[in-house]
Amino acid sequence: MSGSMGEPREKIDVLNECIRHMLDDFATADVGRGAIHVGVIAFSQNRAELHQDMVPAAEASWTDMEARGGTPLGAALELADEVLRDESAVPARSFSPTLVLVSDGLPTDEWEEALDRLLDSPRGSRANRLAVAIGPDMTEQAKAVLRRFVSDEANGVFEAHDVGRIQQYFRWVTVTVTQQARSTRPDRAPVLRPDDLSDFGA
Questions:
Q1: Dihedrals φ, ψ of 69, to 5°?
Q2: CA distance 142 to 133
Q3: Is a pLDDT exceeding 80 seen at residue 32?
Q4: What rounded mean pLDDT belongs to the chain?
């Protein structure tokens, strides 16, 4: 990620903090006999990498990501597809995954074929896919890319124009994923309603 949201803190710093808190909360969540597994893909310049291997949250060791410019979304989607197809990382008996795509601009590589492959894959098609547009400079064209990714039009693309909204959104993701893991119907995707974030502070 690159650029600034016009706030005293860089958006990448806030994103790192939100993910760190989310991992801590997942690690201590009481979800019965199972565990919430988490993986994080970072994409910048001209490549994507598995920044955090897919492991139980309690085993994750978070290292802050750095903003280096560029948005190689296609590479990130290809890597996400590889991880989801790897049964050593995501066992066949696992619940449908939740994928959260965070972006602050237009893709800088070819992404459409990679997205189609992900959406056509067994796990990608069933995943609860969420998207966050960070910063006030996101164009309609950039947001249109994210709208193609999301799995539920009721959620749409969440727009985080300031750091408080990013923090609220990740708290909502943390709570809803934890609730899903405890649920008897875990494949029911949560729907984010406009008033929901008021419960999560700023």
A1: 85, 160
A2: 8
A3: no
A4: 86
